[in-house]
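Bumping my old thread because nobody answered last time. Still need a sequence for this structure:
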């Protein structure tokens, strides 16, 4: 894993979130991925379960609901790459309606481990809402 590959993965992560395309989501993760929406959650295990969770088809512990098109945006970048481990930070912003003002902004940190095919096998998200 290197910074360029990590940035490409993060860009594809954002694109998959924007599209909610099941194949785009699945392409990010290994078959046996352990995905945590919060560091204290039990992980969602397996690629199919993560896709279902992202699509709002599964009530996994801590899972967020599916966002309405045009009401969110994000950018993330790697800040540390060590072997198969990547730490990335970034910002996500939400609107109540596509043409509306930003109503919530979050600072995000992802801690991820990747397999030999640059698919994420462990994902944990940390975030905090920024004050208005």
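Sorry it took so long. Here it is:
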């Amino acid at each position: 894993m290197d910074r360029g590959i990590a940035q490409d993965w993060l860009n594809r992560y954002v694109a998959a979130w924007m599209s909610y395309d099941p194949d785009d989501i699945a392409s990010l993760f290994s078959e046996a991925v352990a995905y945590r929406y919060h560091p204290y959650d039990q992980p969602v295990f397996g690629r199919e379960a993560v896709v279902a969770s992202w699509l709002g088809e599964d009530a996994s512990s801590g899972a967020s609901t599916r966002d309405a098109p045009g009401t969110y945006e994000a950018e993330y970048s790697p800040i540390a790459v060590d072997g198969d481990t990547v730490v990335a930070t970034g910002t996500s912003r939400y609107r109540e309606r596509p043409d509306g003002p930003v109503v919530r902004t979050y600072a995000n940190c992802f801690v991820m481990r990747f397999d030999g095919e640059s698919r994420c096998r462990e994902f944990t998200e940390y975030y905090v809402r920024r004050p208005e």
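Residues 3-19 form the longest helix (17 residues). Let me know if any region looks off to you.
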